[in-house]
Design brief:
elongated; 8 strands; 5-stranded antiparallel beta sheet; 196 residues; 3-stranded antiparallel beta sheet; alpha+beta
């Protein structure tokens, strides 16, 4: 290839770490790093190397493959940016958003959800769906949750939640099934509409 090995590494410490691992273990598997091409541009690669030793125990050569994974890495990075943007949108949404697992335990709540019920995020994440419902709504709320599990979604329905300070809050809820283990509810306080 007419280039010294160190010229391939975008970050010199990656080369040192790779050589250290190769020396200690005798092989590398799924070693992902950034390398330099001859034109100076960078590519992401997945390296699989095996050290081959001579009869005297000295390293004779390194055998293996280097696979260009730049496209996969770019897609992974784009997905991460997209997920971070989505998280920002959800967190700053004026709509209260609750995520629950299959047992009904809350796994995520946005700021609006915390504000809606007066509980801190940590308090809500220690609760299940029945814990935030008015006592006389628990059975109906659990039936609704089972319906979402079975039918993947539930259109807008009204239900009374309990605020931390003890008063009920009239809520309009839309729920969707994201997966068998994750459910998302969009909740809107309609107390003002109910009182007019």
């Amino acid at each position: 290839l007419n280039r010294p090995a160190q010229d391939y590494y975008a970050v010199e410490s990656d080369r040192d770490a790779m050589l250290d691992q190769l020396t200690r273990k005798g092989r590398l598997r799924n070693y992902i790093t950034l390398e330099k091409k001859k034109d100076g541009s960078h590519i992401w690669v997945n390296i699989e190397y095996k050290a081959v030793y001579g009869n005297d125990g000295s390293l004779k050569y390194v055998d293996g493959v280097v696979i260009d994974i730049s496209e996969e890495k770019a897609a992974e990075m784009a997905l991460k940016v997209s997920e971070e943007k989505f998280r920002t949108y959800v967190e700053s949404s004026p709509t209260s958003i609750f995520l629950a697992d299959a047992s009904g335990r809350y796994t995520y709540v946005n700021h609006a959800a915390s504000k809606l019920l007066g509980f801190t995020r940590d308090e809500l994440l220690a609760m299940k769906i029945p814990d935030v419902l008015a006592e006389y709504e628990i059975e109906r709320g659990l039936r609704s949750f089972l319906q979402v599990k079975k039918h993947n979604a539930m259109k807008s329905h009204e239900i009374k939640f309990m605020h931390k300070n003890g008063h009920t809050v009239d809520i309009l809820v839309d729920t969707i099934k994201l997966s068998d283990q994750e459910f998302m509810a969009f909740c809107r306080d309609i107390s003002d509409l109910k009182s007019t």
